[in-house]
UniProtKB/TrEMBL annotation:
Superkingdom of the source species: Bacteria
Protein name, as recorded: Glyoxalase family protein
Matches recorded under CDD domains: PcpA_C_like
Organism from which the protein derives: Aureibacillus halotolerans
PROSITE patterns cross-referenced by the UniProt entry: VOC
Domain VOC, chain residue ranges per copy: 5-131, 156-282
Gene3D superfamilies referenced in this protein's UniProt entry, alphabetically: 2,3-Dihydroxybiphenyl 1,2-Dioxygenase, domain 1
Alphabetical list of Pfam families matching this protein: Glyoxalase
Length: 325
């Protein structure tokens, strides 16, 4: 029962068209799946990643049209880092963000890694992180049709930052239940607050870290567009996931129980500060119902939603991504 790293992060958008344009045309990620929220089929669920959406490369978005802007605050997933190959890539991305009028900050050094904070058009807090010194989990595979060359292509998810009022209790869940190890700290971003704790799991490196920020000066986040819904961690397969289901039962931790997501299997629970964690299997992957060459082009529905396709397509706003039926 070894968690392998970050699996995916799911965030919120109010505008699927704007979202697709930014993440595919500006950032050059591949739209690997255009589907619906399985718990509310009236909204899109969009998945971006590397060439085939390998685990650890997936950034996903739920679309809620007209959603209010996120009110940043405590009890939140407050930054998503995106891995790029090396320090030279950071210089490339500064120029590209400037060319597309993308809001960004200056490059900062975080535990020896060049890091470039920026925001998407809805205020989503992101950062590029250089894999120049990475010795942990390998990055994903470049997509040959991306507008970004292989030497600068986003290789996956880097460290995810959690902002909480009591870091100790979230740290206990990460370490004592999920098997993370505290490997260091980084300076606080706000004067007078504790240092940010760094937890790592599995092979370690940029694809396997959670950065835990304690803030005692913030109100709770009000989730909206530009906010993050949950973070998922990688487990090997269904057999191992079922062991986690049983472990959570034994610990009397409330969970969703086993959930079939078709592209992976999942288990959800909230840690004591209220952040939603998911454990998700590495497979079967996103090419199970679409040809690898045409991922993300058409509306994909898992088999249990296929009988409702006509109703779903009549309800959801059309989103042309190059392969509509």
């Amino acid at each position: 029962m070894q968690i392998k790293g970050i699996h995916h992060v799911s965030a919120m958008t109010a505008n699927a068209r704007l979202n697709v344009d930014f993440y595919t045309k500006v950032l050059g990620m591949r739209l690997i799946k255009k589907t619906v929220n399985q718990d509310d089929t009236s909204m899109y669920h969009l998945f971006y990643g590397d060439r085939v959406g390998n685990p650890g490369t997936e950034l996903t978005f739920f679309e809620i049209p007209n959603a209010a802007a996120n009110h940043n605050g405590n009890r939140s997933i407050s930054e998503i880092q995106l891995r790029v190959p090396d320090d030279a890539s950071i210089d490339f991305w500064i120029e590209r963000l400037n060319a597309h009028d993308v809001v960004h900050s200056d490059v900062v050094d975080i535990v020896g890694r060049k890091t470039l904070p920026f925001q998407d058009p809805e205020g989503q807090r992101l950062a590029f992180v250089s894999d120049e010194t990475n010795k942990g989990i390998k990055g994903g595979e470049p997509w040959e049709k991306s507008p970004i060359s292989a030497s600068q292509f986003i290789r996956g998810l880097g460290p995810v930052k959690l902002t909480v009022p009591k870091a100790e209790v979230t740290g206990m869940v990460l370490a004592d239940i999920l098997g993370f190890t505290k490997v260091g700290t980084r300076p606080a971003e706000q004067e007078g607050q504790p240092e940010i704790e760094i937890y790592s799991v599995g092979e370690g490196g940029t694809g396997a870290e959670v950065h835990l920020e304690e803030r005692t000066d913030l109100p709770p986040e009000r989730l909206g567009r530009g906010g993050v819904h949950h973070v998922a961690f990688r487990v090997e397969d269904k057999e191992e996931l079922m062991e986690w289901v049983e472990k959570m039962k034994a610990l009397r931790i409330p969970t969703s129980g086993f959930v079939e997501r078709y592209y992976f299997k999942s288990l959800y629970f909230r840690e004591p500060n209220g952040i939603l964690f998911e454990l998700a299997t590495d497979g079967p992957g996103f090419a199970t119902d679409e040809d690898e060459a045409h991922l993300g082009e058409s509306l994909a529905l898992p088999p249990f939603l296929e009988p409702k396709r006509q109703t779903i397509e009549a309800t959801i706003k059309p989103l042309d991504t190059g392969g509509e039926r």
